[in-house]
Design goal:
Layout lengths: L16 H4 L5 H22 L2 H20 L11 H12 L4 H8 L3 H8 L9 H8 L4
Length: 136
C-alpha cells in the first residue's frame, strides 16, 4: 500500500443503540408505541402469508410420512423386483416425464430421472405399472 497507515478508529463505534440512547429520551416512548401497534399489525399481515408457505413444507413432510408408513406387504405379490426391472422400467422410457409425475405425484425432474432408469421407491411401482400398462 502507498503512504503511511493512518488508523481512523475514532470513526467506528462499538456501542449498541441501547447504550447510546439515554433512558429518559423520548425515542424510548416512541419505540414502545411502534412495538405495540405497528409490529402487531405487521405480524397479523405476515400471518396471512404463512399458511401458504406451510402447505409446501407440510406436503414434503407428508411425502416422507407416506414413505415411512409404506409396508412391503402393501405391494401385490406379482409386483416383484425382477418384474419391475424387466417389464415396467423399459416401458417407462417411452412415457413422458409429465405423465409419470402426474401418476405418482412427484416433480417432473424426479419423473425424468425415473424415465432415464432411476429406480423409485417401491411404493410407486404399482402406479407406474398401471401407467405402463403391464399390470397383471
Amino acid at each position: 500500500m502507498r503512504g503511511t497507515d493512518q488508523q481512523q478508529n475514532h470513526m467506528f463505534s462499538y456501542l449498541s443503540p441501547e447504550m447510546r440512547v439515554h433512558r429518559d429520551h423520548p425515542l424510548r416512548a416512541i419505540r414502545a408505541i411502534v412495538e405495540e401497534e405497528v409490529l402487531t399489525q405487521l405480524s397479523r399481515r405476515f400471518d396471512g402469508y404463512t399458511p401458504r408457505l406451510g402447505v409446501r413444507r407440510l406436503r414434503r413432510r407428508s411425502c416422507c410420512g407416506r414413505q415411512h408408513a409404506w409396508k412391503p406387504s402393501d405391494q401385490p405379490a406379482w409386483l416383484t423386483d425382477t418384474f419391475y426391472s424387466e417389464k415396467v422400467q423399459p416401458v417407462l422410457s417411452a412415457i413422458s416425464a409429465s405423465a409419470i409425475a402426474r401418476q405418482i405425484s412427484v416433480s417432473r425432474w424426479y419423473a425424468g430421472r425415473i424415465r432415464e432408469g432411476y429406480r423409485p421407491h417401491p411404493r410407486h411401482w404399482q402406479a407406474l405399472a398401471v401407467l405402463a400398462g403391464v399390470s397383471v
